[in-house]
Amino acid sequence: MEEDRLPPTTRGDFPGSREIIRQAYIRKGVPVTAIEIIEASISKGTLKQYTSCYKKFWQFCADSNRDPLVYKLETYLDFLSDALKEGLSFSVVNSYRSALNLIFSPISNNDEKVINRFVKGVSNIRPPGPKYKITWDPDPLLKYLGTLYPLEALDLEYATYKLVTLMALTSASRVQTLSLIKVQNINISVDRVEIKIPDRVKTSAPGRFQPLLIFPFFKSKQELCVASTIADYIKRTKPIRNTEEKLILTHKKPHRSASSQTISRWIKNTLNLGGVDTSIFSAHSVRHATTSAAYKAGVNIEIIKNTAGWTPASNTFFSFYNRPVEKPQDKFAKAIIELGSNKS
């Protein structure tokens, strides 16, 4: 039978991404102890992203009677060509390339040149572009959040909605970052709340600083004061927190740490309540809206990059985020909160 030509490890159902990576490195002669360390370098988010590629590649090789753990340039490019024919975007094809490189590296210089040329062709055929051509004005949302006041009058559900949305608006943080905040890493002083994020985030890398979120107290705009909202939330959740270390808890019993997916859903609900068209815009669009608004309000681009977690040399803001509509983090937060007062 045709299947008998394939080695036992590549027959049958998809074994999972981790097993594919392990088998690929075992075939290279990498010691098992070293493979475990290599696996630790792959974040959960990256592994989840690569899983769709590995599933497709496993099936592609099964259908064409090829070994998915043996590198061949022909197989590599045939698979990416099929992905392009399916109508997948440049970013997805490029992600597939990264996933394949993980299990097939090192690839010869000559093959690498061919692959790079191929990917450049994909970018010309299907140019990468921003998710949104326009973005929304934060002002109506801020006005809605201002109605969720006084804080003590809110139930836990709406107090949580206000907390996560205000934090996302005034820090331009990814939802993943918000989900990692621990109460023990929050310092409340007279004029601000500072939050350290020691856990690994998307932008973590050797030599880069971990996120430091700074929220000043706004005495003139109490209804939109992020620092006060954080302090109130910590106080009201203390009796239900038990052993939970994460700041953001689910508002329904049993009260557990909220996942990034749950926080995204809450933010999207709040955007909808604040008049944002959520059939178009997701929770992640908050980063587009706030960074664009801060730039229009005159906040220095370096401050915006630093607040959003982009490197100084990054062109991400101008390529994908800047859409028409005395600490750096202080200035960013103040620019967003003061939008409403400037328009009234």
CATH architecture of the largest domain: Orthogonal Bundle
CATH topology annotation of the largest domain: hpI Integrase, Chain A
CATH homologous superfamily label of the largest domain: Intergrase catalytic core
Domain module count: 2
Widest beta sheet: strand line-up: 1-2-3
Given this structure, which CATH class of the largest domain is correct? Answer: Mainly Alpha
Largest sheet: 3 strands, antiparallel
Listing every helix as H and every strand as E from the N terminus to the C terminus, the arrangement reads: HHHHHHHHHEEEHHHHHH
Tally of individual helices:
15
Structural class: mainly alpha
- Total strands: 3
Low-confidence region ranges: 1-6, 308-328
The averaged pLDDT comes out at 82
Radius of gyration, rounded?
A: 24 Å
Topology record:
Elements: H1 17-27, H2 32-40, H3 44-63, H4 73-85, H5 90-104, H6 109-125, H7 138-147, H8 156-171, H9 175-179, E1 186-188, E2 192-196, E3 212-216, H10 226-241, H11 260-273, H12 285-296, H13 301-308, H14 316-321, H15 328-343
Antiparallel strand pairs: 1-2, 2-3
Helix pairs in contact: 1-2, 3-5, 4-5, 7-15, 8-10, 8-11, 13-15
Structure in words:
The chain has 344 residues and is mainly α. The chain has two domains: 2-125, Tyrosine recombinase, N-terminal domain (DNA polymerase, domain 1), CATH 1.10.150.130; 138-343, Orthogonal Bundle (hpI Integrase, Chain A). The protein has helices at 17-27, 32-40, 44-63, 73-85, 90-104, 109-125, 138-147, 156-171, 175-179, 226-241, 260-273, 285-296, 301-308, 316-321, 328-343; strands at residues 186-188, 192-196, 212-216. The protein is elongated. It starts with 16 loop residues before the first helix and ends with a helix. Keywords: DNA recombination, DNA-binding. InterPro entries: DNA_brk_join_enz, Integrase-like_cat_sf, Integrase_catalytic, Integrase_recombinase_N. GO terms for molecular function: DNA binding.
